[in-house]
Amino acid sequence: VAGLRGCGVAGLRGCGVAGLRGCGQAGSVARLPVPVDSNIMAKTRVPAVEGLFTMDAANPRLLGGKAPNGSYSFPKNLGGTDPYSPLGDTEEVELSNRGRIWSYTNSCYPPPPPFVSRHDPFVPVTIAAVELDVEKMVVLGQVVDGVTVDDLKVGMEVELVLDTLYEDDDHEYIVWKWRPLAAGK
Description:
about 180 residues
């Protein structure tokens, strides 16, 4: 129901408990550019979780499965959950990197690992369930920094991008996120 303040259903706003009116923190904090020092070694970019997506920044793709009957799953190892598909080998496939928002909400509490917040204290994040263009399946993911639930609409077109989840001294841990497409793109 549009206009209700809670979480988990498109158009609802809040922090996981119906009736709450938001988490008291507006949006996420913008990341500032880091100066480049030629004497500092670049960090190695690695996936936060192996095997879920490609690391091609120009054309990232989720890695899913395609069952013998043509149904899709994400992640690939989730294959076999389709009751209409006989058990069999699931082929690894690159899934669509565009889709439309099916639902969205924000998370005002830190989720469990492998998520690691870059901010202490935790800063809420926006999450979208996106129906992929080709496969017509819904994949949940975080939305890029700076986009709040007030910026999203059901049916809005988004694209998959790679972004940093967190860093340590040697590595930059990468995840996929959804980024709204500009009108007409």
